[in-house]
Amino acid sequence: MRPRRYPERDFRVERLEAIIRAQRAGLLLCLLVIFVLSVAVVTARRGGSARGIFIGGKLAVLVRDKRAAEKVRERLLKEAKGDLPGNAAFKQDWADETCRVEGQPVLSVEEAVRKLRPRLTVLVAGTALRANRKDLVVLATRELAEAARDKFLHSYVEKVKDDNTVTQVKTRQKIELADVEVPPEQILTDVGTAVKVLRAAAPKITVVVVTEGTRDVPYKVKDEERESQVLPKGTRRRVRTGEPGVKRIHERYVYENGELVRTDKLSVEIVREARPGLVLVGTGEATP
Question: Which domain holds residue 161?
């Protein structure tokens, strides 16, 4: 009996058919994914769930999810804060939570930022120089505020043009450093500009500069008088000219906003004694 012969298999054809079947399956899978995503988007826009951003307790906008809500918040804060170093926060209460769409549009991050921008006020942390419970100027950091205060005080020291020794610099109104949160446009980063603002606050802020110094002044003493019978009565003759002495006066000078308002004499030292002149007073008989 002859053995049965089977037709030869074409492996190339079989491999091509397998590739075609795999591509068809992949295409069907892609279509299925697109369909599912489309249904999800439509569902989200027509009554599904999204992330609601609430301002002051009221729903303001809807975004896709919590991550999108966080991006909106970060964009708004960073945009307003700019390069300022302090922490930023909204003046209004901000909250986000999952909620039903119910016909409201779900916005992109860019759309939500554009819509919320005019509704929110961003506050940035800074340090204020405060006097009489009033903020005079706000700087970005405590270090800048301290530098502005010191330079402001020193500007009045420079205004006192003398060689005396500065013993005290203070303000009549106590200037305090206070941590505040204000809109970013109110915060300064330049010390020089802050000093100009503080100088403009004068005379509400009185800077007192106290100096001490010495000055030498000449002084004279009364002439010495001596009776002389040689001279006729009623005549006077100077026989020795007096010489002035020198006094060294130690004084305190008080300036307010650069103007001298008081001088206090602390001590007087005689550097050189004054020499009196000598005058002869005639007591003799008058010459006929």
Answer: 126-206
